[in-house]
Amino acid sequence: MSETEISIFDDLGDRYAIRRRQLLPTWIKFFCWFFAIAGNLGALVMITIALGGYSKSPVFLAFSGNSYWTLLVLFNVGHMLLKGATGIMLLGEKDLAVRFAIADGILSLGSAIVGFVNAYMHKTHEMVFATTILSLIIQLLFIIPYLAKMVRIRDEWEENKFISNPQTSDNQL
Questions:
Q1: Are 23 and 31 in contact (CB under 8 A)?
Q2: Which of 39, 56, 104, 141 could staple 84 via S-S, CB 3.0–4.6 A?
Q3: H or E element at residue 163
Q4: Dihedral, CA atoms, 113, 116, 121, 122, nearest 10 degrees?
Q5: At what angle do helices 97-121 and 71-91 cross, to 10 degrees?
Q6: Which H, E and C letters describe 123-161, residue by residue?
């Protein structure tokens, strides 16, 4: 048998091979776990409440609506599902995870700014507006570094030199 066998352990000895997850800082891993759980559960709860006929007006991410079937509420539920899917993809080291993360970061940035403008235009009390400003600052403190990190690691993430992809060995070439 002169044919070389391919093993899943071939790249484990390569000192340059790394896990994609090692490219992510700890705080991004924390938020990936948080949104993988809370993002999907939150969207599931919103859909369940909407189908159950709950009569109160929804307030979700600084947006409010008259019913659960408004376009704005459905957009926010979809955004939470995107955050959950992005978290799962980043933790699972999928190929398109960083592209989804960049799209999620841009969408989050836009959503935070639109939520701030919405709160400014409909302000009823100065304390509510001050809380909205604080909320915007906190969101931007996390969204901008997240987006910058994802843009920075995109090229390295998309290269196929990782342990999770053992099919690309020099023996096959």
A1: no
A2: 39
A3: none
A4: 140
A5: 150
A6: CCCHHHHHHHHHHHHHHHHHHHHHHHHHHHHHHHHHCCC
Token pair belonging to 129? 């507006």
- Quote the tokens at residue 43: 């969207």
Angle at 69 between CA 65 and CA 71, to 5 degrees: 70
Tokens in use for 170?
Answer: 């020099």
Query: How would DSSP label each residue in 21-79?
Result: GGGS-HHHHHHHHHHHHHHHHHHHHHHHHHHHT--SPPEETTEE-SSTTSHHHHHHHHH
Residue 78 Cα to chain centre, angstroms: 12
pLDDT in tens, 1-42: 445 665 555 545 455 556 788 889 999 999 999 999 988 888
